[in-house]
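User: My collaborator sent over this chain with a note saying "see what the structure looks like." That's all I know about it. Can you take a look?
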Amino acid sequence: MKSKINTLASLGLLALGSTLTAQGGFVLFDNATAEIAPEQKAVRPISAPYFHEDSFVTTDVRAWYVRHDFDSDTKGVLGNGSATVMAVQVRVALTESLQFVAYKDGYTEFDDASALDDNSGWNDIGAGIKWAFIQDWENQFHMAAGIGYEFSFGDEDVLQDSDELRLWLSANKGFDKLHLGATVNAILSEDDSDSLLGNSDMLTVHLHADYYLAEWFSPVVEVNGYFAQDDSPTALAAVNFSGVDAGSLPGGDGEDTYTIAFGGELRVVDGLGLRVAYETELNDNDSLFGDRWTLSAVYEF
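Assistant: Without extra context I'll predict from the sequence alone. Here is the result:
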């Protein structure tokens, strides 16, 4: 644990020493910010909110409501049930290139989910630091790296209660009104034996595209991939049932999950974005994912 703290501190010191420029908005320890044209501003990620992190340093609050309908072919674990997740994320620009990210919290309610029935409870809490080491506004090119930790404060009854170290790298490139992004996460399980099904390390990949169609609207398309790196070491490892981003379930080596999301952002008030997306699984796999609706509001200041 001490080595992880040292790594986090080193990352923060590197970011504090940089002289890159942040997007216009509130910065806790620096007043020097840059304004950009509205059509060059990328839409913040909508799907996979726990793992999809862009390369921009902002101060904002993001509210989430997710309605998740499970795949009926889930080895009898969840049947045709559903889950509702409500959460709030907070991001604070500490300097022009360093951001505090509180990316996971909230409350989950299962409905008629077979083995989980109507369980409800709190999610784990995850937070970290993001360092934007490239912020080239002239060429609309940005890159960032981050480190975070998910603390097992959540309820096992809703597939939470798991400690995880998260490392991520992101890149964003704009072409005037078209904005592209990609994020890669390495999720390292810290307690693979606390729950009955255990846990495993996971690699996730997230792709984003949006287009500034009008001052008030941008369509969005996103693709997500979840790749378990090993089998659960518990007695039920043979289940190999993946929780993707919705729950702390191990999955299995080779049991990959791909999803696609279609949505958009509506801008009716300065600084406020209202977003919606429909997401569905692309491959037939043993995972928690069936399809989901995500509603989100982002307020930047």
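A starting point for your reply to your collaborator: The chain has one domain: 2-300.
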